Amino acid sequence: MTIAAVYAEFAAREAHGVSPTYERLASAVARDLDLLALLAGLPPAKRQPNLLFGVVRLLGGPVDDPAAFHEYTVANWPVIEAEMRTRTTQTNEAGRCAVLLPVLNALPQPLALLEVGASAGLCLYPDRYAYRYGDHLVGSGDPVVACTAANLTPPTGLPQVVWRAGLDLNPLDVTDPADLAWLDALIWPEHTHRRARLRAAAAVVAADPPLLVQGDLVDDLPALAAQSPPDATLVVFHSSVLYHVPMPRRMEFAEAVRELPGHWIANETAGVVPYDTLPTPPGEADYHVLALDGQPLAWTRSHGQEITWFT
Questions:
Q1: Regions of the chain short of the pLDDT cut 70
Q2: Do 82 and 163 fall within a single domain?
Q3: In total, how many domains does the chain have?
């Protein structure tokens, strides 16, 4: 897929109906020969829209107006390029816990959670947040995560988590202002509710930090999993992570996680993890597939705002 096609698809499938600013901006970049030429000088994994837009926002550049974005990006490309080469899109969206919750609740309790691609670890605290599925409220406290659920009886309680750990090539620290600023820059411009949720979830994590380990999702997974308490159910999970990983390495990861004594929850864009059959998605948007131990269960949206259980 060409760089222009990547940005056009991002506008049509990911940003449409979710972020008018990014839909407009990605559509403009897809037609901007100057910016496409600059992006072509980056490694393929570093050309993605979320990374470019997040870096420009982090540096204080404009994203509301495509013309101003073009001018700023061209004028400041050396700085932008350097940031894009060293950073990754580590969006740490606590809202994804809302689509993980039904699966986590159904597993034998208590749980030992191990997140691959954990970023700052915000998704390691599904037991500490509150959730609203329509009019149904689960838990208490802040943040309150809203999720639209279809074909699913909303959860009635929270899981019991006795151990939580994360594995990431570059773990982030929510108590570090620079790391928190990067997480904030990755949140799409109109999403003030997600920005507030980030701050609230970061406060939860800062009060009781998880074990975050810098390492590879294949090479370092067994050793970290071995640290989980033997009397808890090990759950290895990930959301919007494996698309960063080349397909052969994804297969190696799948083999590694299947060898562990526990369960595997995947929440990835359709096609990232291969499944034999999937039902028709509920819409034209970019949907994720929620799966347990290789068995697909539901369609979800990327920020946890929607779950449609397979019937």
A1: none
A2: no
A3: 2
